[in-house]
Amino acid sequence: MHHIYHTKGIILESKEKGEANAYLTIFTREMGMVYAAAQSVRREKSKLRFALQEFSLSNIDLVRGKDVWRITSASPEENYSALILDENRGQVAQNIFKLIVRLYQGEEANEELFDHVTKSLSILSDKKIPDTDLKHFEMVAVFRILYYLGYLALTGENDVFVRSPIDLRLIEEAARMRTLLLNDINRSLRETQL
After folding, report:
1. Ramachandran region of residue 150, left (φ > 0), alpha (ψ -120 to 50) or beta?
2. Cβ neighbours of 38 (radius 10 Å)
3. Which residues, at least 6 apart from 61, have a Cβ–Cβ distance to it below 8 Å?
């Protein structure tokens, strides 16, 4: 008998497999990055369909198969798919997802990063940051991702971008310290060599 793992996860990517199946990239709170197969998820009658769409935050049950994780059930908690319809906000979310897929290594929990990503999706979805400030919001989001993954160290000048809540004041500070933030981010990305 297989052990069922229960976790909360964000669907970062979905790739079609066969006629109705999908192969999903899921960033989970308890298990890190998981690549899992979902059977018949693309059929109209599928109960899993809405819980396993890209940009969904769901409670997911997984079983470890011989070669791959398999999803046995899922229930949606939050759906951020409206971001796809908003070109600017959707692009910021996609950039965050791509960075995590690119840099995250293995099935190891990183709860701080998971909480940061879900909070960022909520901020984007609730439009708490004006469109004119999205590039600065993205800089702060990327900065925190790099920090939580261990690719970036805090200094006295930049620690405010991790320690403070993401709000309009922090975004204004990011605009003011744009050069410092970009230098830290670019140096960190170069050092990853990925």
Report:
1. left
2. 26
3. 4, 5, 6, 71, 72, 73, 74
Q: What is the 3-state secondary structure (H, E, C) of 89-106?
A: HHHHHHHHHHHHHHHCCC
Decide if 185 contacts 146 (C-beta within 8 A). Answer: yes
Residues 176/158, Cβ–Cβ less than 8 Å:
no
Burial class (CB in 10 A: 0-12, 13-18, 19+), 65: exposed
pLDDT digits (tens, 9 = 90+) for 104-143: 988 899 999 999 999 999 999 998 889 999 999 999 999 9
Q: Which amino acid is at 14?
A: S
Which domains are delineated in the chain? 4-79 (2.40.50.140), 82-192 (no CATH)
**Distance between CA atoms of residues 22 and 157, nearest Å:** 44
pTM: 0.91
